[in-house]
Automatic annotation (TrEMBL):
Domain called Methyltransferase: residue spans: 51-144
MF (Gene Ontology): methyltransferase activity
Keyword entries, A-Z: Methyltransferase, Transferase
UniProt xrefs under Gene3D superfamilies: Vaccinia Virus protein VP39 (3.40.50.150)
EC number of the protein: 2.1.-.-
GO process annotations (BP): methylation
Name of the protein described by the UniProt record: Class I SAM-dependent methyltransferase
InterPro entries: Methyltransf_25 (IPR041698), SAM-dependent_MTases_sf (IPR029063)
Organism: Streptomyces glycanivorans
Pfam families: Methyltransf_25
Amino acid sequence: MTGKQDRWAELTGGQAGEEYAQRFARLVASGHDVHGEAAFCDALLRPDARVLDAGCGTGRIAIRLAELGHRCTGVDVDSSMLAVARRDAPAQEWLLGDLARLDALGLEPDFDLALAAGNVVPLLAPGSESAVIRQLAAALKPGGLLVTGMGLDAAHLPLPEPPLTLADFDHWCTQAGLILRQRYATWSGDPYQDGCGYAVSVHSRPA
């Protein structure tokens, strides 16, 4: 860890939980499908898989994956977001913690899939990215998958410019012993091409 505040906290002050939840509630009310990430992950998993939602926020994805029959643990550093998740799904496991120190939470390294959606990686504390990827890789069982979604330009980020490149991210994954399996431009599975503003990546821990 660098000791620096993560970019999400700088943007929100750590008080964004209710506002974030209301934004997605409005999307649902207007007829939008907000479960693309969960559907994408579900298609990769066997029934009753164990999922780590890293940077789970208000729990939208983990709650949906639980509805689809998976066992989900959500971790986030923003207590205001976790308060919403705990209210909406009190029976699920929600942990307050720093993703760069997942090992401090005492989780067993037996997850079938670790998910970092919603620009989690670009919004990490500067300098902590490689440590977070190592922690997520260590949480996976052999053959487990790391699934990430991140903006690569200002149009797909709540930041004026991207703090990292896809090459940076792939380097950290390689350092953590992960292998790139698939990459898409959207959670719907549109093909990724160089220059796309968003990337959904599937890395695996070797079996």
